[in-house]
Write a structure and sequence with these properties.
Length: 499
């Protein structure tokens, strides 16, 4: 084989997938059609479950540092009191769950910055990125997969992961269907210098003629401007966006001119919502926009893609290095495809609420009232932030923590202290043993880290088995019979590590 895994696409999801694979010991080659990193920044914020995920890889500080640099030294993520309320279809008032461990609720960095940071991370881990390598074919058999590029090159591997966007050559080459609902709206966007940033309509604004979303970044001088019109899908998505077109569209929506200059990264797109029939076809896997697309409302597209990457990376790395079964790899689809399906549904709902038609006004008014109810607010906030995710552990009577996000905690390990997140920087499963009297023998190995510790935040637990992606694979409470503990732990380790 030329390499263990070929990742197609060097956007944030592809680079995160490659970094996770390399962290797990796999040899990775990334093939990217573009000769230079993309300048488009459709996504502007990292939030929800992505924040503690980056923290558990030791990467979060890089993003908060970039945010401070962009905002003249003032990082909005550093002070939760300065964070705006979350929104649903531009209706503000959502109270997103507060991450544990004093982490910020969101980090405001454009997608291009996220790609740069993750590219640096992948390079540190030895990932090879080949730019100017457009994939034109994928062929697989029982032994492996061959990826063909436009220049006639062939790269062989055990697996290929398509992270190459909505028009994925990998998905098409594998014959995987991509179905859902067609676009009804048209969006024009770009990075510009605002002539009067202080008086620009920052944030979400809906008028009788459409919507705008303007993210002002005074520190870097350039702001993100998005204009949405419900006049049908773009006539030609590939047609270049001009400064005059974007300015006229924004002026038409607001009924006044918003001075702007120096357009970069102009783009146009619709609101189609499509989902791949399967996430795995033999030796071909899909993640990010190659597996699911939806309108980028609520900042979920990039965030769900990065979470795809972290879910897949450790499983595929363990598989190609002989440390996990095929059954574990199959859980990538069973765990992540339902998440994407739910995101497609509530982004469709948000587009329906953004429609400027007068008939929608009453519905928005009612929805504004509903967001004020605690249970509704929590339901929507947890959906958008991915805080509601709980994976099936494959057991009949799982512990209340099993399948959910491992709680943040401060641990005492002998004469030193650390945060639970620090144990996951290496991307390996961790068995946290909290009962000094436990005599069951489980040794650290290439497949597992075993840590003895105490923590007041984890009182009542004797053991906690944490997956590399930060979710709980298994847990045991004090008082559980020793034989049951051994049996359950054995089964959980077999599912997680193949041994």
């Amino acid at each position: 084989m030329g390499t263990d895994v070929v990742v197609v696409g060097a956007g944030p999801v592809g680079l995160m997938t490659a970094a996770e694979l390399a962290l797990g010991g796999a040899q990775v080659t990334v093939l990217e059609r573009g000769t230079e990193p993309a300048g488009d920044s459709r996504a502007q914020v990292l939030h929800g479950r992505t924040i503690p995920t980056l923290d558990r890889r030791g990467l979060l500080d890089r993003f908060t540092a970039a945010e401070r640099e962009m905002n003249g030294g003032a990082g909005r993520s550093q002070d939760r009191r300065a964070l705006p309320k979350g929104h649903f279809a531009g209706i503000t008032g959502l109270d997103f769950p507060v991450p544990g461990g004093g982490l910020p609720g969101a980090v405001f960095v454009p997608q291009a910055v996220t790609a740069r940071i993750l590219g640096e991370r992948a390079a540190e881990l030895g990932v090879e990125v080949r730019r100017g390598a457009e994939v034109v074919g994928v062929e697989q058999d029982t032994e492996g997969v061959v990826v063909r590029t436009a220049d006639g090159s062939r790269v062989s591997a055990a697996f290929v992961v398509g992270c190459d966007g909505a028009r994925s050559a990998v998905r098409r080459g594998a014959g995987i269907g991509f179905f859902g609902t067609d676009a009804i709206a048209s969006t024009t966007a770009g990075e510009v210098f605002l002539g009067d940033p202080a008086n620009a309509p920052a944030g979400w604004h809906r008028t009788a003629r459409g919507c705008t979303v303007i993210a002002v970044h005074p520190g870097q001088g350039r702001s993100r401007v998005v204009a949405i019109e419900f006049t049908g899908p773009p006539a030609d998505r590939t047609a270049p966006v001009t400064l005059d077109e974007l300015a006229r569209t924004v002026a038409r929506i607001h009924g006044r001119d918003i001075p702007m200059a120096g357009l970069e990264a102009g783009a146009r797109y619709g609101d189609a919502a499509l989902l791949a029939d399967v996430y795995r076809a033999g030796r071909v896997l899909l993640a990010g926009d190659a597996a699911h697309i939806h309108y980028p409302v609520g900042g979920q597209g990039l965030n769900i893609g990065l979470q795809d990457a972290v879910n897949l990376g450790w499983k595929l790395a363990a598989h190609v290095t002989g440390r996990a079964s095929d059954a574990l790899l199959d859980t990538f689809e069973s765990e992540r495809r339902p998440v994407a399906d739910a995101v497609l549904n509530h982004t469709r709902a948000q587009l329906a609420l953004l429609d400027p038609a007068p008939r929608v006004d009453a519905l928005r008014a009612m929805f504004s009232d509903l967001i004020g109810f605690g249970e509704v607010n929590r339901y929507l906030a947890e959906k958008i932030s991915a805080a509601d995710i709980r994976y099936d552990t494959g057991t009949a009577d799982p512990h209340p923590l099993a399948g959910g996000w491992a709680p943040e905690a401060v641990l005492t390990l002998g004469d030193k202290r650390c945060r639970l997140a620090e144990l996951l920087h290496g991307g390996r499963p961790v068995l946290l043993r909290l009962d000094e009297g436990d005599t069951a023998t489980v040794s650290a190995s290439a497949r597992l880290d075993v840590v003895r510790a105490t923590s007041p935040q984890l009182a009542g637990l004797t053991q906690l088995l944490i997956r590399p992606d930060g979710y709980v694979a298994w847990a045991a409470d004090a008082g559980l019979p020793a034989e049951r503990v051994r049996s359950e732990l054995h089964a959980a380790l077999a599912r997680l590590t193949g041994a």
